[in-house]
Amino acid sequence: MENMTFDTNDYMSKIAARELSRTIKFASLRCLSPAEIMSELAELDEAEDQSDYISRLLDLKLNQSELELLELTMETLVQRADKAPPKLKKKIHYVLLRLVRALPSDAACRFAEPFVDHRLKTVRERAFSALRNKQISESIAEKLTNIFCMLGDQEALELIARNPERVPKVGGEFLLTNLTERYWRGRVLEALLRHDRSTAMTLADRFPFEFAHAVGRTEDRTLLEPLRGLFDAHPNNLEFLSIYAYALGKLSAKADLESLEKYVRPTTLP
User: Fold this and answer.
1) How many domains does the chain have?
2) Quick one: DSSP state of residue 181?
3) What is the pLDDT along the chain (270 residues), one digit of tens a residue?
4) Domain boundary among 80, 103, 126
5) Is the CB of residue 110 less than 8 Å from the CB of residue 72?
6) Looking at 103, 126, 144, which one is the last position of a domain?
7) Which domain, by its residues, includes 247?
8) How far is CA 131 from CA 97, 100, 152, 192, 264, in A?
């Protein structure tokens, strides 16, 4: 094949050439097996950019033997990081936290846990992000609670709220009091409704908006009666009435929605 020629003095041609080069490089990565990609990652150095290798690996659905190989590769990187100079150590930690996303929850927690209470906020945030779709361990939940108490990281509490099984142990009232966003407080009450309903009921009056949001997310029609009780307590709160309507819709409570429509109609007509 003869070499392609074009005017590289043209600005747009230069951009297109760079894009073509990158496309060819990534296409070449698609020809590598997961084991070959992991081998490249295990040998990473300070200068080489391994982002495309990681992205390709994360795109793949790894089988059990490949996941085991990935864990071994990450163990190798952990050992290298222990003896590496600061710049390489930082790069290895970044790679590890990206690779955590490919692991099942137990293994992901094992590799990410050292970073959830790291002294640097940027590193902690990468760890929180890596664990966003994982079931976190009790020890990580405890570390997240401690890091919030020390440094005020809202993201630490939000990660707990993503894990309903961990909410009762950490404490629903603690989370509801300290989370600043209604959405995450609603997630906490949803977790309590699923795993500690009696506590959720005691907190409903203090957090009516969040409780209604949680009821809607659960789609549990057995919660319709306590939801109606909150309407009786907050009949003139428009924000609550909006989330109340959402919850009624999720519960398919048609009669209640019709009653609500009749109730608010006089205030919405010109």
Assistant:
1) 2
2) -
3) 555 555 556 767 777 777 777 777 777 778 899 999 999 999 998 888 889 899 999 999 999 999 999 999 999 999 999 999 999 999 999 999 999 999 999 999 999 999 999 999 999 999 999 999 999 999 999 999 999 999 999 999 999 999 999 999 999 999 999 999 999 999 999 999 999 999 999 999 999 999 999 999 999 999 999 999 999 999 999 999 999 999 999 999 999 999 999 999 876 544
4) 103
5) no
6) 103
7) 205-270
8) 9, 8, 19, 21, 43
